[in-house]
Amino acid sequence: MQSRYAAAMDMMTVFQTWDGKTTATLKAVADQLAPADYDALLTACRDLDETTARAASWVLKAAYEAGHDIAHPSDLLARDLHWEVALHLLQSVQHVPVGLPPEVVAPYLTHDKPMVRAWALDAYVRLGAPDAGAVLARAADDKAASVRARARRLMN
């Protein structure tokens, strides 16, 4: 059996050497994730190296989708994040309880990347924003189809 330290180091090696595109190695990490790895995974999401943080946030989202009970690093959303890290954290809001005021997500509603806007909308509504109805109405007219589709889905 591999020690927790060795497993965490292997995970970090995968993150640090990730090509930025292929998800097979990230899926393998997610499939082998154990509670002993959660702290290292959350630390990797906070890494200043964008490649590491992007890879770790992808694995974190996959872990939430698989039902892992890991604390959401919602405080990261108040930072200036690589768009993919923000996207993964915003997409994760639907899978895990998040103690975050919707105002922290609001800046992402106008992000340049349509997918970030769409999932910011989803998170904003799920977090109980008081003006969610008005924001949804505006999003229904967004120029990006992904944002309009997310708005329709949230309205139904």
Task: Please supply descriptive tags for the structure shown above.
single chain, 156 residues, 9 helices
Description:
The protein is an all-alpha fold and 156 residues long. The chain is 59% helix and 0% strand. It is built from nine helices and no strands. It has helices spanning 4-17, 24-31, 38-45, 50-65, 83-92, 102-105, 114-126, 132-139, 145-155. Helix 4 (50-65) runs parallel beside helix 5 (83-92) and helix 7 (114-126) runs parallel beside helix 9 (145-155).
How are the secondary structure elements laid out?
Elements: H1 4-17, H2 24-31, H3 38-45, H4 50-65, H5 83-92, H6 102-105, H7 114-126, H8 132-139, H9 145-155
- Rg calculated over all Cα atoms: 16 Å
Main β-sheet, in a few words? none
SSE series: HHHHHHHHH
- Average residue-wise pLDDT: 93
N-to-C span: 48 Å
Tally of helical segments? 9
What's the short story on this structure?
This protein is mainly alpha-helical and 156 residues long.
